[in-house]
Design goal:
This protein is of the alpha/beta class. The chain is built from eight helices and seven strands.
Amino acid sequence: MTPWLVIPCFDHGPALRGVIASLARFGLPAIVVDDGSGPATRDILSELAAEHPWLEVHHHEVNRGKGVAVTTAYRLAAERGASHVLQLDADGQHDTGDVPRFLEAMAKHPDALVLGVPVFDASVPRSRLYGRQISRALVWLFTVSLDVRDPLCGFRGIPLAPTLRLLDRTTLGAHMDFDPELVVRLYWEGLEIVSLPTAVHYPEDGLSHFDVVWDDLRLAWLYLRLATGAALRARWLLGGRARR
């Protein structure tokens, strides 16, 4: 296994500085995809790239969405020889002390999708908790399984070969809808799911780009599309059994 770290970033410069500092001890190469950040974050990214030779920064000239940013990172990592990526958010919510646990699970299950399952503290907004429960229930319905304990967590280990094959033939959501759609479609492809509990903290001065209107609408549209796909998939599976 050849893992790279990947981090999508949009105006998270100050928080990202701390994230990068906490990752230096692991000796892994990393790619940050800056998704159209402003000058302040671009300056910080330039400083970080100069300070850390293991860190590569790639820029999108305009904001294109988290899904596009991580897809760019996956392809860049694959071009550089990575077999897997360990994805984290740039806002400091994730416990980077769990990186070794994720890497161990990825090495033990190289063909699996390793998903973080958030263990929230009191800092979590209640609205995010309720919305998360809806997403979990719908994903359980679409996969006819309880294997995916959390489809939204951005702390995840991803095998690149099956992921890039999927992305080459299917257009996934470009924004916050990307993470759950990737999980469901890779599950439909037959990937094993490995879940790891991990602490998640919302910093008081943290910057979140989750738009409660537009991103909730994108998620609603995603789940409608996945419901259609699940119905067609069930019909195909039942038809195959009937022919046998």
